[in-house]
Amino acid sequence: MNLCGDHLEEKYVPLPIIQHFMQLYPETTGLGYSTGMYQVQKVFADAILAEKIFVRLEIDLRDSSIIYSCSNHNKGDDFLVSYITNPTVNDLDSNNCRTLNNLILEK
Question: Is pLDDT of 12 > 60?
Fold first, then answer.
């Protein structure tokens, strides 16, 4: 959480879902954030799983919504394989972007 600096208050972030996302996708290098009017508005984690295959977890701090998306640009620009609003940990597991795109985690 320290990657977001002093602007992000931990009480606003659903930490378990972020931790689970980062366990599923070790390619995630950290958290990012976007600001508006000098406040953090969104926190997100991204991972590139393969060429043109991306996964993202985005938390909107203004309304506490969470968006999970998996896209495969090999199938067309902005082709969404999975898009879930307010996912649970189980939703992340059952919509694993790596599995949906027939990818194998390289260790």
Answer: no
What is the pTM assigned to this prediction?
A: 0.80
Residues 6+ apart with CB under 8 A from 78: 71
Average pLDDT, the chain: 83
For residue 57, give the nearest of 49, 47, 68 by alpha carbon. 68
Report DSSP letters for 32-101, one per residue: EEEEETTEEEEEEEEEEEETTEEEEEEEETTTTEEEEEEEEGGGSTT-EEEEEES--HHHHHHT-HHHHT
* Residue at token pair 């996912």: 87
Contacts of 13 by beta carbon, 8 Å cutoff, 6+ apart: 1, 43, 59, 61
Distance CA 107, CA 36 (A): 38
Contacts of 92 (CB under 8 A, 6+ apart): 17, 20, 21, 24, 57, 68
- Side-chain half-sphere of 30: how many Cα atoms within 13 Å? 7
